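Q: What does the assembly look like in three dimensions?
Context provided by user:
Components: two
Sequences:
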Amino acid sequence: MFGYLFLISGLFLGWSLGANDASNIFGTAVGTRMVKFRTAAIIASIFVILGAVIQGSGTTETLSRLGSVDAVGGAFTVALCAGIIVTFMTKYRLPVSTGQAIVGAIIGWCFYTATPVDYSVLVKILGSWVFGPILGMLFGYVLYILLRKYIRSSRIHMLKMESIIRTSLIVVGAFAAYSLGANNIANVMGVFVNSFNVSFTIGSLYISSTRLLFFIGSLAIALGICTYSKKVIDTVGNGVLAMTPEMAIVVVLAQALVLFVFSSTSLSNALMSIGLPAIPLVPVSSTQVLIGAIIGVGLVKGVQELKLKMVGGIMLGWITTPVLSGLFTFISLFFVERVFGMQVSMRETALESLGQAESSFASVEYHMPTTNVNTFFLVATIVLLIGLLLYTFFARKKALEKARAEGHREAKKKLFSDYQNALKEIEVNTVQLENTTLATRLEERKNQLVTYSLSIGEQRKYLESISESIEQAIKAPTLQEKNRVLKNQLTEIKQRMSFKGEVDEIYRQAEQVYMEFVEKLDKTFPKLTSREKEILVLLRIGLSSKEMAPLLNISTKSVEIARYRLRAKLGVSKDETLTDFIKSM
Amino acid sequence: MFFSRTKKSIELIDAFLNCVDQGLLLFKEGVKNYLYNNMEHFNNDIVQLANTERESDKLRREIETTLYMQSLMPQVRGDVMQLLEEMDNLIDQAKKNLFQFEVETPHIPAELISDFIRLTQTSVSAAESTIPAAKSYFNEPVNVSEKIHRVYFYEKETDMLADIIRRKIFKEIPGLRLSEKFHLRYFTLHIENISDTAEKVADLLSIMAIKRIV
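A: Here is the predicted structure of the complete assembly.
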């Protein structure tokens, strides 16, 4: 039972594969919002399992021939290293191929255990890395031309066409998921096939070890699809090329066809039966094929649409993934064997043979650890490792969510406080304006009150002086004296009729109201006389020449003449009236 | 099940376009009846146009809801909604114009009646040409450009006719008061506006078609 624990690294790799490669199947469909993520995830999960269980053996055999990992410890390490590399690259949102990671890891194992690498198989696999995308490109190119022709020639309503496309996306996605399961299960469980035997029988139903391993592996892939693929879909779905749903069908179908061709034993046999060469059943990178198909479609649409920088980045990943994986596996195998004392191969390892060679020369005794497995220590380490990975994953997710929620809250708070500040400012401004207006009015009223009081007192005095004069005239002894007193009074009354004080008051108040105007007048026309300024202020109030004449104590004609002179002095054009000119100031 | 819902949406869109078409026909008839002083028919046209406008509004809202609820055409949904709104504007404008005829009862001199009829026919033709173009967008977007050139043609014609009428109003017909001239000018403008909206629809359709073809 303890042996099952070693499968965890394979399951982890399967989980990584699901997280990454689901984007190759439904990424474009989800990215274009034609299929909901939940629907896509369920369909992909079911068909991946079916594909792996029904048709997964062909490619597994090829991978086993590359390097037959024959010890559980070795298989565990190879799968774990590949899984870690895939996760690392996923973290940085680089579309990565599990196939390349596992091939790199197997070669690392071969080097470490001094197992000869079957180069014919390696060449086949490497060839598939080149040929897979090319085939994908060809399929993509041809299928896109055909689909475009069909869409243009058919007179199907856009809505109906959309339904067809949506259904096609689901069907094609399911086919692609099936092919992915069939082709890529070798990457997940291939290394365990030769080192594990878990077959069992229920009644008359016998389930072989390989098939059971495939089923368990595909469950892990399905888990990866459901839990983590959304993030990668966000990159590939819209990242490489702006996809239309029509393009999505072609790209996914091309990818599915290529994966199917490279994993179908019956198709290979059928070709052989008609005298054609067999198709190598090799695990193909679905990412590479996807990129190929996208390039194929891009060729039809015009290459400039491709984001070449991103494609270049992905291609760089193709080189770095196997190299990193191989190195990492080599180092890890050393630790697993030397530190945990775990058997990584049935053969003697490269370091052991080196040790033996050296000992034969120098007769030095090396204390090599035995293959006694420190069970407790190993299990604890595995559990710790898995726990650490899970903790990192969930902690990061939680931290991200928290940060996002915090950000939202902060943004909302800020927006709210901004609104509040703006409202406060408006309110304060309004109150200030009201206060200023009220203060001005109050000042005016005060002045008016003072003026009225003064005026009443003055008028009373004046009327008293008149009544005194009249009394003097009545009491005057001679007619001559009487006439003199009355004449003096009349002159005084006439003088009073000029209303000089009142006019000054009006002018003062007008100046206060039109303060800005008076200031402007002083600044623009500094040579104006005070009389002219008076006339202009009275004009600004809106008084006519006739109304102004008594106030200025001159005739209407004189006001007219003064206005004429002012026009010349201010440079008012013939088309404009003086009043308009003043108002426009 | 899935296709039946799609079929319903298609039927709704077709019904909406037919509604717009019917509204434009009623407007054309209404103006003609007003100009020939067939007031009974004119009033009948107004009532029918108001009903058609209500129906088109209802259909537009229903289409909007269906598209969003069933998450149909997520990529072009915004464009389609805008198209339907612009087309709804056509029928709204037609209704508004006919009501203005009814409320303001402009006095149209006898020598301008034939001009006004031609103006109305051309302006409505521009608007009517948007309907096959819109249908074409849904069925065969490649042919949209062929259909919308008619809209541009009729719109230009409408502009020309409107200019001729305005010239006649202000320069050639004696005895019109300034208020009457202004009134007639506004009615020319109202009718002309329908073709301008049709031009907007055509512009939108041409961009939408390019988006779909590419």
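Follow-up: Residues 2-373 of chain A form one domain.
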